[in-house]
Amino acid sequence: MKTFRRGGAHPEENKLTNDCSIEVFPLPKQGIVFVSQHLGAPATLVVQKGDRLKTGQLIAKAEQFICANTHSPYTGTVSKIDFATDFTGYKKQAVYIDVEEDEWEEGIDTSKEIISDIKLDSKEIIEKIKEMGIVGLGGAAFPTHIKYMVPPGKKAEYLIINAAECEPYLTSDYRLMTELADEALIGIEIMKRALGVEKALVGIEENKPSAISRMRELAKGFVGIEIVPLKTKYPQGAEKQLIYALTKREVPSGKLPIEVGCVVNNIGTAQAIYKAVQKNKPLIENILTLTGKNLKQGKNLLVRIGTPMQSIIDAFGGLPHDTGKVISGGPMMGKAISDLSAPTVKTTSAILFMSDKESSRKEETNCLRCGKCITVCPMGLEPIRIAQLAENRLWEDAEKAFAMDCIECGTCLYTCPAGRPLLDMLRLSKTNIAELRRQRAQK
């Protein structure tokens, strides 16, 4: 079974909501839409207080190279433009919308009809992806159109689709593949055309047989789309690990996938591109998993971006009594939600409830020199060494130890018997090394 060549772990899968069909979550009374929801330069606000918006209307425009448009997920009136707290506790500029019944922007197709005939050429597809504000839904929120603007001297040979969903608890991609596979596959065909490649490889972990079967059956109607089962192993869906598993090509340190002829996108991004190109629909909603062992009933929900997380939690019985943490995303790479009133964003993949026992860290003790963190690191790093350099603020030495190659998967922290805060130290190293590099560039 195909997989990456070094490291990795197998946390308890906890796919508790595998059998929960996607449900449409009701519109909130007030939506809070962050102006910028992407990696890169901030978008420029184009609406003001008192404006009446239609669903799908542009509210913030991308005017820099690495940037993404933001659209209104709602019909309603802009009650204010102010700073709102995101789920990590940071204040960001947001548009507050008093929500009314949907009145869609002209030209948006809201029907369920599947449109398979692709009429746009490569340049038109890339422009449409940009116009509709599509970002990577695998977590990074990188503006998707940039990936399809292949630099001079580089050539894309493979489109790689991450459908592994290796993170424990998450099932939104699984439900997408079982319920909306036709949309995702047309999206992949659109992406192939945009890149000018003949081959798309869709990697799905073997613990999702229904998704593999469904995708394979429908993929017979397409040329050059191969569904590839992968070993169930974390972090199978990480970009560089996925490329190696599917092509045996290894992305060099500090380089991007295009260096080895690959472009990688998430399966959710493929469906969003289908809706953008075939339905003229901007990225204003996503599928998220509401889950946790102590939750009475988990869900997979289609939620409009800007929906307060608290309203989702309240709709399904509120917090379980023994909740220790609420996580945005999965337990390995997700982040604790510091303010439940924070709204969902384009990349919100899950709201995960963890009990006091589950969310408590091990008591930190001295390093045992067991080497487990080195054995499981999928990037071949020495996490304990980098952590020790970080503790002593030796950022240049951490850089030489390839700290910037860390993908923040958390396997080192997960396996450490001494409870060392390895991931925290690696993230701290990357932040400080990035600042060092900015300072060097200014000299």
Structural write-up:
This protein is α/β, with parallel strands linked by helices and 443 residues long. It folds into three domains: 1-24 and 112-360, 3-Layer(aba) Sandwich (Rossmann fold), CATH 3.40.50; 25-100, OB fold (Dihydrolipoamide Acetyltransferase, E2P) (Beta Barrel); 372-442, no CATH class. 29% of the residues lie in helices and 20% in strands. The chain is built from 14 helices and 17 strands. It has helices at residues 122-131, 144-147, 172-179, 181-195, 209-219, 239-247, 267-279, 309-315, 356-359, 372-376, 383-391, 395-400, 411-415, 422-442; strands at residues 22-24, 30-34, 44-45, 52-53, 58-61, 70-71, 75-85, 91-100, 158-162, 199-205, 225-230, 262-266, 285-291, 299-304, 323-328, 335-336, 350-355. It has a six-stranded mixed sheet with strand order 1-14-13-17-15-16. Strands 2-8-7-4 form a four-stranded antiparallel sheet, with no helix packed on it. A four-stranded parallel sheet has the order 11-10-9-12, sandwiched between helices. The longest helix is centred in the last third of the chain and has 21 residues, at 422-442. The chain starts with 21 loop residues before the first strand and ends with a helix. The model has no long low-confidence stretch (mean pLDDT 96).
